[in-house]
Design brief:
With 751 residues, this protein is an alpha/beta fold. Helices cover 36% and strands 15% of the residues. β19, α17 and β20 form a beta-alpha-beta unit. It catalyses: 3-hydroxy-2-methylpropanoate + NAD(+) = 2-methyl-3-oxopropanoate + NADH + H(+). Its EC number is 1.1.1.31. Pathway: Amino-acid degradation; L-valine degradation.
């Protein structure tokens, strides 16, 4: 049952003065904040890797606040407050919405509203940066109650968001934008109804006619009858087409010009046969004069216009010129389908007759072309006997049917060869394209504090066509994660629950493991290798566990032996960043893999973190992780001893830390995770050494580093002594289960 609540009566008046929506969108910026353990609440007794806490990416819209404000939630007088959206999953800060809307609220009113929002079923359990986060749909509902719907819609708008101006002189930051949300966009307006014609039709629509709807268009040149072949005189005239005056053409809606076909004629008379079909009527006329301009008719009817011009030349020979046109109306009602089909069939028949006449004419030209060589020798005699007769310029030679077929064969051969070469070049890209366009199946084994958050980020960033199978021996963790994945914001891969390691990976292309100890990794992959139902498909195994390099390489060899050659790849990718980085998606992975697999593995790891550092071949990532944590373990003890020394001599811890961090003694334990309470805000020392990177995990990493050193003969002079210190401190009740900086208590430090 949701707790009862009442909203404050006094709201921010500046939020009711809405600027244009485009201005609200333009005000948005991407931001990034360095996270501390205090800003990301973790589970009690959770362990955080302190080497990299990571950063928190978000999008924000600055909401103005009244001047001189002072209330229970605002001790100072800020000029504005951020409406924020989390980049990892697109959730909106309900805390920011409340503070921006009710700036005069008291702490009790904010706590009451916070409890109410947290009681909603869709509210995120992760209170990153101290805020309560809700999905966009819930944010819109809450904004409706607050009266700030326009501001939240602008925050959720899918338009790209620019990165905010950097606050320092360093290089530009890489800030991830939230996933695009389209639920708040307005629906498209309905298309206008063009079924009825407009009240007035412009005069220039009368010439809108399309070409004949057949494969063979209307002839573009004069086609002479095959009755007699004779050259025309050079003096010809051109008949002005109907519907044009002084050479001008009507312009169509899209600034197009109707096709005009000039018809060469002689000064002699012209006889025209004209047949028109308007809806159900077909008219045939034969005139001695050119066809008159079309009269004003109903432009909403489909018109069929066919002409057969019979022209007589100077010698009295007749020449036939068939022509067919169909006028399609721009507006008005289209004839019934059966009438239109009948009219088109009649038009096709008329065009077929014209095409046969043209084909016969071309055959006649081909036959006459065979005797052209014989007529050339009489050219001079004809010129002498002509007594001044002018020889008309020969028209452009028309290709014969055989030549046309040869040209078509050449073009088809050219296109076929080109297509074959292009297809051959694309064959190597087929596996990549298929893997990109197809469905990808993932498996995630190991849902501890780190693995739980990593699997959640992986699922949220995959396509809906992909799938993720999850497994852990803790069935409660599996069921809880599945419910959380399915109830989050729309999007992400499909989620399936498995009850065994074999089941989770049987159809997976990529298997990710995050397990506590080397023995757990060995047992899990022994079960995978023993599976006899592996389909024949390439698989990628990514182990994010922190184990020794030798165990990792032994597991890699067993995996390779259980698959066909080249079908399985095992890589190690231990991470740094702790639960905070896993939750925010800012982990750093140290990858040990062959160079040709780096790009493929990066695509997967960057869905769960920010950086991937390729350290070398398989096993190199674990070697780098253990070397780094060995140095961290030794530096932590040295920092605790040095701080205790200075404090006992009367130095202020803040002053001493400032000297160390400005000098050569500077290190991560002195600057970020200082063991003296009160020196670094948010450090585990300030909250009784709760949370952080547990002393038990440091003992484990130190033990693995010593094992790896013994295998390769590397001397760790301080390793044995450091192990004794952590083991002894871990046995004391006041240090057990706390952050590894608690060794300051063990060496006698005072805070």
């Amino acid at each position: 049952m949701a707790p009862s609540r009442h909203l404050p009566t006094e709201q921010n008046p500046l939020l009711r003065e809405l600027p244009p929506y485009a201005d609200l969108i333009a005000r948005r910026r991407l931001g990034q904040t360095q996270l501390t353990a205090r800003m990301v609440p973790t589970i009690p007794e959770s362990e955080i890797d302190p080497s990299l806490l990571g950063a928190f990416d978000y999008a924000h819209l600055r909401a103005p606040l009244p001047r001189g404000i002072s209330s229970g939630i605002f001790k100072s007088s800020p000029s504005s407050y951020f409406l924020m959206r989390r980049s990892s999953d697109g959730f909106v800060s309900a805390t920011g919405m409340f503070k921006a809307t009710f700036p005069w609220a008291e702490m009790e009113e904010e706590d009451m509203e916070r409890k109410y929002v947290k009681s909603l079923p869709t509210t995120s359990p992760d209170e990153t940066a101290g805020n309560v986060w809700i999905p966009p749909e819930s944010a819109l509902d809450l904004a409706d109650e607050y009266g700030i719907v326009a501001w939240i819609k602008a925050l959720l708008d899918p338009a790209d968001i620019p990165v905010g101006a950097p606050t320092d002189a360093g290089p530009p930051k890489e800030i991830r934008a939230p996933p695009k949300y389209f639920g708040a966009q307005p629906q498209p307006l309905p298309l206008p109804d063009l079924g009825s014609p407009p009240s007035t039709v412009s005069r220039n629509t009368r010439s809108r006619r399309s070409a004949s709807p057949t494969k063979v268009p209307a002839p573009k040149r004069s086609v002479a009858s095959p009755r007699k072949r004779r050259h025309q005189a050079s003096q010809t005239s051109t008949e002005t087409p109907p519907g044009s005056a002084h050479g001008s053409f009507d312009t169509l809606v899209n600034d197009e010009t109707p096709s005009q076909v000039p018809i060469p004629v002689t000064p002699s008379s012209t006889q025209t046969t004209k047949m028109e079909a308007v809806d159900d009527e077909i008219k045939v006329s034969r005139n001695k004069e050119p066809a008159p301009a079309p009269s004003v008719e109903d432009e909403s009817k489909l018109k069929l216009h066919c002409e057969e011009d019979v022209k007589a030349d100077e010698d009295g020979e007749e020449m036939e010129h068939p022509k067919a046109e169909i006028g399609v109306p721009l507006y008005g009602e289209i004839p019934p389908p059966e009438d239109a089909a009948r009219i088109i069939a009649e038009a096709k028949e008329m065009v077929r007759v014209a095409t046969q006449a043209q084909a016969a004419h071309e055959e006649d030209e081909a036959a006459e072309g065979e005797g052209a060589s014989q007529s050339k020798r009489k050219a001079n005699d004809d010129e002498d006997d002509g007594e001044g007769t002018e020889v008309a310029r020969r028209t452009k030679r028309v290709k014969t049917a055989v030549e046309t077929r040869k040209d078509g064969m050449k073009k088809r051969a050219f296109y076929g060869i080109g297509a074959t070469l292009a297809f051959g070049a694309l064959i190597p890209l087929v596996p990549y394209v298929m893997s990109t366009l197809g469905r990808d199946n993932y498996a995630f084994i190991g849902l501890g504090q780190m693995g739980y958050q990593m699997a959640r980020n992986l699922q949220a960033t995959l396509a809906p066509t992909d799938s993720v199978r999850i497994f852990d021996i803790n069935t409660a963790a599996v069921d809880g994660l599945a419910r959380a994945m399915r109830s989050q914001q729309a999007g992400g891969a499909a989620v399936h629950v498995a009850r065994s390691a074999e089941h989770v990976s049987i159809d997976a292309d990529t298997v990710i493991t995050c397990l506590p100890e080397p023995r757990h990794v060995q047992a899990t992959f022994a079960a995978l290798v023993a599976a006899t139902r592996f389909p024949a498909r390439p698989r990628l195994y990514i182990d994010c566990s922190t184990i020794d390099p030798s165990t990792s390489r032994a597991v890699a060899a067993k995996v390779a032996a259980a698959h066909a050659p080249g079908q399985a790849h095992f890589v190690d990718a231990p991470m740094s960043g702790g639960v905070v980085g896993a939750t925010a998606g800012t982990l750093t992975f140290m990858l040990g893999a062959p160079a040709d697999l780096v790009q493929r593995v990066e695509l997967v790891l960057l869905r769960m973190g920010r950086r991937v550092l390729h350290c070398g071949p398989q096993g190199a990532g674990l070697a780098a992780k253990l070397a780094n944590n060995y140095l961290l373990a030794v530096n932590n003890i040295a920092t605790a001893e040095a701080m205790n020394l200075g404090v006992r001599w009367g130095l202020d811890p803040q002053v001493l830390a400032g000297v160390i961090n400005a000098s050569t003694g500077r290190c991560w334990p002195s600057e970020v995770n200082n063991p003296v309470p009160g020196v670094v805000e948010g450090a585990p020392a300030g909250r009784g050494y709760e949370g952080g990177f547990g002393i038990g995990l440091m003992q484990k990493d130190l033990r693995l580093a010593r094992v790896a050193a013994e295998e390769v003969g590397a001397r760790l002079v301080l390793g044995e002594k450091a192990a004794e210190v952590y083991e002894a401190a871990g046995r004391e009740e006041r240090c057990k289960g706390r952050d590894f900086s608690v060794v300051y208590r063990y060496v006698g430090g005072k805070g």
